[in-house]
Design brief:
This protein is of the alpha+beta class and 359 residues long. It is built from 4 helices and 24 strands. The strands form 3 sheets. The protein has a 16-stranded mixed beta sheet that branches. This is Efflux RND transporter periplasmic adaptor subunit.
C-alpha cells in the first residue's frame, strides 16, 4: 500500500492549541469531539524481522516427463495427416499415414521367419523322438532346441517392429499418438519424406502440469531455498496470482545466462499457463534483523518526507518524521523516528496531520 499524500482537509475538532517542537515533532494538545475520537484507529509499533520481496524472472516450460517427440523407425513418405498444431489428441489416436517400402521388407522377412520357425519346430520334434530312442545325443537335441528359440526371437523382433508402426501388407502404416496431450510442434505434411534420422515429426505435451523455471543470480542464491512458497504473476492475466513452491534448485549455473534455475512444478488444469509465457516470481526474503514495523497506510508523504501521527494519551497527538529502512507490501520498516510501542494513528491521521500543521 502506498503512503498517504498530504491534501487540504478539515478536522472536526474543538478548541485546540499547538506548539512547535524541535526534532521534527509538533505536539497538539486539544479537546477532541468524542464521536471523532471513537472513530480513530491506532496500532502499536512493534519489532519484526524485516521481510522483503525478492522478485525473480522466469518462464513457463513443458514438464519433460510429460512430453513425447515422435521420430519414425523406418523410411517412408507421409500420405495423409489428421491433426493440426494445437490440437488435443488422445493416446492411440491415428495422426498420420505413411507409405514405406521397408514395411514390405518386414512382411517378407516375417513370412520367411515363420517358415524357418515351422521347419525348426518339425526338426525339434523329430530330434526329441530320436533322443528318446537313444539315437541322438544330448548335444544334438540342445542344438535343435536352440534353432527353435533363435527363430522365435527373430520373429518376435519383426512382429514388434510391425506392431510399433501399425503396418499392413500394402506397405503402409499409421502413426498413432503415444500419449494424450496437445500438439505443440508439427513438422510434417502429405508428401514429406521421413526417416529415422529426421527431426521429430511432431511433439505432444501434456499441459495439465507445467514447470516454471526461475532465474536465480549468484547474489540472490543465499535467499532462495527449496520448499519456499512463491507468488507468481504474468502480464497475460493481470491481477491473478499463481501460488506454488520451489521444488528444486539446479546445482549447475546456466553457461549462457549465468544463473541457476529454480523449478516450480505447477498443476495447470485450466491450461492458463502456456509454455514460453514470461512469469514474475516473488518470494519472501526474511532477515534476522529486527526493525520497528508499522502499516504502510500510517505513513503521510509531505514535502518529500514521511510522517506519522502518534497518539500520546487521550487527547494528545504528535507528528513525527520517520525514515524508512524498507517496506514489503503492507508493512513499513522504520530506520529512525519511532520506537517500539509508539501508538500510531492509522485512520483519519491525515485530518489530524492537516490540522496540526496548519495551527
Amino acid at each position: 500500500m502506498k503512503r498517504i499524500t498530504i491534501l487540504l482537509a478539515t478536522l472536526y475538532l474543538l478548541g485546540a492549541c499547538s506548539s512547535k517542537l524541535e526534532n521534527n515533532e509538533t505536539v497538539e494538545k486539544q479537546t477532541i469531539n468524542q464521536t471523532f475520537l471513537n472513530n480513530l484507529k491506532t496500532v502499536r509499533a512493534e519489532l519484526k524481522p524485516q521481510e522483503e520481496d525478492l522478485v525473480l524472472t522466469g518462464k513457463v516450460e513443458y514438464n519433460p516427463d510429460k512430453v513425447v517427440e515422435y521420430s519414425p523407425l523406418v523410411n517412408g513418405v507421409i500420405t495423409q495427416t489428421y491433426f493440426s498444431l494445437g490440437d488435443k489428441v488422445n493416446k492411440g489416436q491415428v495422426l498420420a499415414n505413411v507409405k514405406s517400402m521397408e514395411i514390405n521388407s518386414l512382411h517378407s522377412e516375417k513370412s520367411s521367419l515363420q517358415a524357418e520357425l515351422a521347419t525348426a519346430q518339425r526338426e525339434l520334434k523329430s530330434a526329441e523322438s530320436m533322443h528318446k530312442d537313444s539315437m541322438l545325443s544330448d548335444a544334438e537335441l540342445q542344438e535343435a532346441r536352440s534353432k527353435v528359440m533363435q527363430a522365435q526371437a527373430e520373429l518376435s523382433r519383426v512382429n514388434s517392429d510391425m506392431s510399433v508402426t501399425g503396418s499392413n501388407k500394402s506397405g503402409g502404416f499409421s502413426i498413432v499418438a503415444p500419449i494424450s496431450g496437445y500438439i505443440v510442434t508439427k513438422n510434417i505434411a502429405p508428401g514429406t519424406m521421413v526417416s529415422p534420422d529426421s527431426d521429430p515429426l511432431f511433439t505432444i505435451a501434456d499441459l495439465n502440469q507445467v514447470w516454471i523455471t526461475a532465474n536465480v543470480y549468484a547474489s540472490n542464491l543465499k535467499f532462495v531455498k527449496e520448499g519456499m512458497p512463491v507468488d507468481m504473476t504474468t502480464l497475460s492475466y493481470p491481477g491473478d496470482v499463481f501460488v506454488g513452491k520451489i521444488n528444486q534448485i539446479s546445482q549447475v549455473f546456466d553457461s549462457e545466462e549465468r544463473v541457476l534455475k529454480a523449478r516450480i512444478v505447477m498443476d495447470n488444469p485450466d491450461l492458463l499457463l502456456k509454455p514460453e509465457m514470461a512469469m514474475m516470481i516473488k518470494l519472501k526474503n526474511n532477515t534476522e534483523n529486527l526493525k520497528v514495523a508499522i502499516p504502510m497506510k500510517a505513513l503521510i508523504f509531505d514535502e518529500n518526507k514521511d510522517f506519522v501521527v502518534v497518539k500520546q494519551g487521550a487527547d494528545k497527538f504528535v507528528i513525527k518524521e520517520v525514515k524508512l529502512q524498507g517496506h514489503n507490501g503492507d508493512t513499513a520498516y522504520i530506520l529512525s523516528g519511532l520506537k517500539e510501542g509508539d501508538e500510531v494513528v492509522i485512520k483519519d491521521q491525515l485530518l489530524i496531520y492537516s490540522q496540526l500543521k496548519n495551527k
